Amino acid sequence: MAGGLSSRLRKNNAVLTDRPDFTLVGVLRIPTIESSPWRAIWQRILIALVVLFVAAIIVYIDRGGYADNQDNELSFLDAFYYTTVSLSTTGYGDIAPISPSARLVNILVITPMRVLFLILLVGTTLSVLTERSRQAFKIQRWRRSVRNHTVVVGYGTKGRTAVDAMLGDGVAAGDIVVVDTDQTILESAANIGLVTVHGSATRSDVLRLTGAQNAKSIIVATNRDDTAVLVTLTARELAPKAKIVAAIREAENVHLLRQSGADSVVVSSETAGRLLGIATTTPSVVEMIEDLLTPEDGFAIAEREVERDEIGGSPRHLADIVLGVVREGRLLRVGSPEVDAVEANDRLLYIRRVSN
Q1: Cβ distance 135 to 24 under 8 Å?
Q2: What mean pLDDT is predicted for residues 297-316?
Q3: Do 244 and 176 form a contact (C-beta atoms < 8 A)?
Q4: Nearest Cα to 219, choosing from 164, 259, 168?
Q5: Taking a C-beta distance cutoff of 8 angstroms, is the pair 262, 243 a contact?
Q6: Which of 142, 233, 267, 332 is deepest in the core (most CB within 10 A)?
Q7: Is-above-0.70 flag for pTM?
């Protein structure tokens, strides 16, 4: 079975990642900061007027080479009129404005209206036609530069809450990539600035599209335990050095996630059950736990390096309230004989005060 799974992963490996970037538009979406459409329209109008004015100056400088029906030397008004008629692609035949007032009306009223029409028609059309090219260019640039980001598989309740926690802890939205099969859910993720990929993360080509092979961490927050196992197995094959955290419903599946390559496994049903049990007798404890798990409220559990002046000291006597020490990848609780003294390469789990 394992051999069949590996062969299937290799078979799907090049389905998306070898396709041209323009074919990925709609699958991979890079967030953009949308500007006001009215601002874009006014910018286009200003550019058009500048072009008209520059063209009029050029014609006026060479006015000796132009003549009207009365063989008079062109004034600047004539030059500006000529450029407006020419640049707006309007050709007059037997009926043409010849008086200064008529020409002035054409300059001040008719031509701006025509330019506005061209801007709205041509500009909007070009915007639609070039949007796909712009998206393809952004996808190409993003795929070349993405490094040390976090991939979140599943943007349901668990995935969304995980993203909120990371954003509250200072992680940039552009450093988070969300994968889901529901396009509507991905729209809500894109609206807050997250990079999104539409597809099933059980396929290695979809995970490659997220840059999982260069990711710092991968969060597996699927709705099914068997899907979480397959996603974890696929992710570990692509990203052997990434930290993989997975959430499952049933505790009996923890060993499957561990064997598949998960570094940490959160059992959502048991965790919720414990909190419910505690809440029946000491609801304030549950409130404090929620506070510690919510970065934007009063306190938060954080991890940091040991400072030079703390080496050799007891974690009990530090300025911060230390809950545990991470040493060589192992979590040691405060009070354990192994952590009587803090060492240089340790990392401290402590309660961080959050200023509102």
Answers
A1: no
A2: 82
A3: no
A4: 164
A5: no
A6: 233
A7: no
